[in-house]
Amino acid sequence: MEKEKKDLLIIIPAHNEEDCINRFLEQLERTGVSDIADILVIDDGSSDRTHYIVESRKHTMVTHVYNMGYGAALMTGYKYAIRRGYKYVIQIDADGQHDPCNIFSLYDKLREPDENGEYPDIVLGSRFLEGGHSFHISGIKKFAIAGFRKLIHISTGKKITDPTTGLQGLSRRTVLYYSIYSNFDPKYPDANMLIQTMLLNYRVEEIPAIMHSRETGTSMHSGLKPVIYMAHMFFSICAIWLRTRVMKKETKPVPRNN
Question: Which residues face 122 on adjacent strands?
């Protein structure tokens, strides 16, 4: 009997996550995520045993020969999703900070129409909404989150509680838009991408999410990386604002029938 095709793809970017990824994939399997979705791990040039651990669990994996960055790993996943015909994508971190239970909530929200019969383009998992759960956040990260909230509100008139969340559900329309290189930041896709899509009238919603502290491994925002990240994000947001609102060189959204 031919296996029923699933319409949901889980994208997991991973770089040197040998301490976390085996346990995380086991959680996904145990909670039944693999029953409703296909799982794709993008090994972004890991120099540890990440590749071999994923391979042993027999999940689909794409490997970057070199470490190309978080955004580039996501773009690989987006292109895979488009070519394989998935209708929805959920991106989730490999370090175990995002609880697998969030996947079911994001998937339900993506398929839930509003009072006008319209569906979300992007659903964000927020640790700051009522019903969500957060872990300890450093002072510099809190500062960044507050700043990005303000920039989003100034730029779009909309309020987002968790602008740096990596836990996101995407419609096929959004995935198709992001899969185009010039539309996506291959290094630090974050609040800048939210501003860009909201300026193009993509529908963005938030739901409460459960997140945990990272138990092992090294965060991609460790050391001086948060400072570099904040500087990159600030200039990226300024560039997006100038391009779309001052120079009027607005990138075109993907039509809703795609």
Answer: 170, 204
The pLDDT assigned to 167 comes to 97
Q: How many beta carbons lie within 10 A of that of residue 7, not counting itself?
A: 16
Judged by DSSP in three states, 15 sits in: coil
Q: DSSP code of 245? A: I
For 3, residues 6+ apart whose C-beta sits below 8 A from its C-beta are none
Residue with tokens 């329309």: 173
- Give the end-to-end CA distance of the chain in Å, rounded to a whole number: 30
CA–CA gap between residue 233 and residue 192 (Å, rounded): 6
What pLDDT, in 10s, does the model give residues 230-256? 888 888 888 887 777 666 555 667 777
DSSP 8-state secondary structure symbol assigned to residue 133: B
Residue 251 zone, left/alpha/beta (φ > 0; ψ -120 to 50; rest): beta
Pairwise CA distance, residues 229 & 106, whole Å: 26
Count, residues in the chain: 258
Is 152 within 8 Å of 197 (Cβ atoms)? no
- The encoded tokens of residue 193 equal 């991408």
Query: Cβ distance 215 to 206 under 8 Å?
Result: no
Q: What is the pLDDT of residues 85-135, one digit of tens each?
A: 999 999 999 999 999 999 999 999 999 999 999 999 999 999 999 999 887
- Output the CA–CA distances (angstroms, integers) from residue 20 to 24, 98, 122, 179, in the order listed: 6, 12, 27, 27
**Coil, strand or helix at 126:** strand
